[in-house]
Amino acid sequence: MSVRKLKPITPGQRFRVVNGFDALTADKPEKSLLAPLKKSGGRNSQGKMTIRHRGGGHKRRYRIIDFKRDKQDVAATVKSIQYDPNRTAFIALLEYSDGEKRHVIAQNGLQVDQKISSGKGVAPEIGNALPLSEIPLGTIISCIELRPGQGAVMARSAGTFAQLMAREGKYATVKLPSGETRLILSGCLATIGAVSNSDHQLIVSGKAGRSRWLGRRPRTRPVAMNPVDHPMGGGEGRASGGHPRSKNGIPAKGYRTRSKTKDTNRYIIERRKK
C-alpha cells in the first residue's frame, strides 16, 4: 500500500495526498452483494435535524459484509480486494467451495487466490477467523466479537489491530487499539492480522469540496458564535471562549462520560490512554 502526492496543477491539489490503491484488484463491486443505502441528512423520523454538519454527498450502495464468519469448515478463495465507500478499510470478495460469495474486511497482506477459512481447528494464518481460545498468545488480531455469534464489532477500521495478551479460565485478555486492556470471552471469534489500508491516516483532502462529497457540511467554530448559540460563544474581540465544551454544555477534554455503574466495567482491566 502506498500514497501519492499530486502535482499541484490546481489549488485544491497543492497539498492533496491520495491513496495509491495499488492493493486493489477489482474496480467493479459484486452485484449480488449490493444493497441500497438511504441518506438521512442528519434528520430523524420527524424531519428535525438531530446531527449537525451532515447532508449531501455522493450516492452510495452498501456492500453486505460477513462480520459473523459463520460459514465454518468450508474453504474460501479470495477472488479480489475491493474499495468500499462506506468504510476506511478495503474489503475482500470470497468465493466458497460450494459457490457462495461473501465480502469480508480485508487484512493486511491478504492476497488474491489465497485460501482462508473460519472455525475451530483452523490454522492461525492471515485472514482466518478462529476463537480466541485457539489463537497463540501475542498474535496480532482484528475484527473481534464481544459476544459469541454476535459478529465482529471491534478493530474494524483501516490499519487497526489488537493483541491477544493472556488467557485465564473462560476469558482472554486483549489489548485494544485504543490502549484499553479488556477481558473477552474465549469463545468469541477474531481474525488473524491487522486491518488493511493502514496508509489511510496519511491521506489529505486538499480542499473543502472533498468533505462535501463525503456528506460533511461546514462546521462553524464555537468561539465565533454568540452566547445564545453556544457556551463558548460571545466575548469582546477575539475571546478564546472559556472551557472547551459541547453545544449541550458537556466538557470536551478529559471529562469521563462512561457510567461508573456500567455492568461491563468489571471486564476492563486498564482504561484507554487519556
Automatic annotation (TrEMBL):
Signal peptide: none annotated. Residues 124-251 form the Large ribosomal subunit protein uL2 C-terminal domain. SUPFAM superfamilies: Nucleic acid-binding proteins (SSF50249), Translation proteins SH3-like domain (SSF50104). One of its GO terms (cellular component) is large ribosomal subunit. Residues 260-274 have a biased composition (Basic and acidic residues). It comes from the Bacteria. Coiled coil: none annotated. One of its GO terms (biological process) is cytoplasmic translation. Residues 42-118 form the Large ribosomal subunit protein uL2 RNA-binding domain. PANTHER family: LARGE RIBOSOMAL SUBUNIT PROTEIN UL2M, RIBOSOMAL PROTEIN L2. One of the primary rRNA binding proteins. Required for association of the 30S and 50S subunits to form the 70S ribosome, for tRNA binding and peptide bond formation. It has been suggested to have peptidyltransferase activity; this is somewhat controversial. Makes several contacts with the 16S rRNA in the 70S ribosome. Part of the 50S ribosomal subunit. Forms a bridge to the 30S subunit in the 70S ribosome. This is Large ribosomal subunit protein uL2. It comes from Ulvibacterium marinum. The gene is rplB.
